Amino acid sequence: MDQLLLGLVSLGSIVAAAVWGRSARYREKLYQRLQRESGDADLKALALSDFRKDLHTTILYAVLALAAGAGAVAGRSAGAILLAVMLVPIAISLVFGRNFVNEARLEHSRSELERRAQEVLVQEDLAPRRWAARLAPEELPDFPGFEVGRVYQAGAGLMAGDFYDVFRPADTRLAAVIGDVAGQGIEPAITAFQAKYLLRVFLRQYRDPAQALEELNRQMSAMGRSEEFISLCVVLFDTQAGTLRYASAGHPAAWLWHEREVRPLRATGPLLMLDPAATFVSREIPLEPNDLCLLYTDGLSEVRSGSQLFGEERIANALRRDPGVSPDVLCKSLLEAARDFSSGPINDDVAILAIRRA
Questions:
Q1: Mean pLDDT of 303-328
Q2: At 267, is the secondary structure helix, strand, or coil?
Q3: Residues 6+ apart with CB under 8 A from 266
Q4: Which CATH superfamily does the domain covering 136-357 fall into?
């Protein structure tokens, strides 16, 4: 019975040795390829370690097969023969054991470095999106009595300088803001963030958007960033007074559908942060049901096809063709039209905002 059992152990060990031997052969080929092609010493060390471990396991099973086979043939001396032959893989383990532990530590350290590097990459990828979500949020609260549409497309830069905002500075007023900080990168994005939320404060403090722009200009100019400037348009819908009041700091013309025609809302003052003492004026228009205001940044109007610009008139004509379209559809169709018009990828940020008085 013992001899039969040893014979089965020997047969099973032969099969295991063959499997581990094939694995060792493939790992050896990988190590040889890395020796020829890779300059990463750690990677080659790990490949060699994997090969040695598989080879060690192959030898262990081969010796076990030999010992068990010899025991099945020799009968009573099987135990002694088995113990004697097992000294071979034990000796190998003692010789290479320390190397195996060190290589395992190296592999663990490498894995930790790769994990941390991946975390850094993920954070770097998330940061621009989180900034964009603050500057041009995809979701806005509902504003009873108004329909709001918006769209934003990031340009080639990592950080956005375009922003928009829609909020109630008072129960009977709705403010719509769109702006663009010159440049790309972290500094313009920080400036855009500061301007957006400072303007919220000043629009609650002043009923006149021109006064709010003057105060914002003084505060932003005091930061001493002479290389930056901001174009910005503010539109205030006052449902109690039945008026629309706007002020624009050097921003591309917004368009208003009013009294069955499209009219421009052009700049009423210079760019912000050029002159801390600059003055701005507001203009007021009667507000009627179904009036629609369309605002955008220059990333839309300056889309190019060769030497031609998409231009303000194409934007105005989109509103003329279908003034009853929903604000959300209008924004999305304008972006699609700009993409179709462009002779290449749109590299600048594009923000579009549309608000209709219901």
A1: 95
A2: coil
A3: 248, 253
A4: PPM-type phosphatase domain (3.60.40.10)
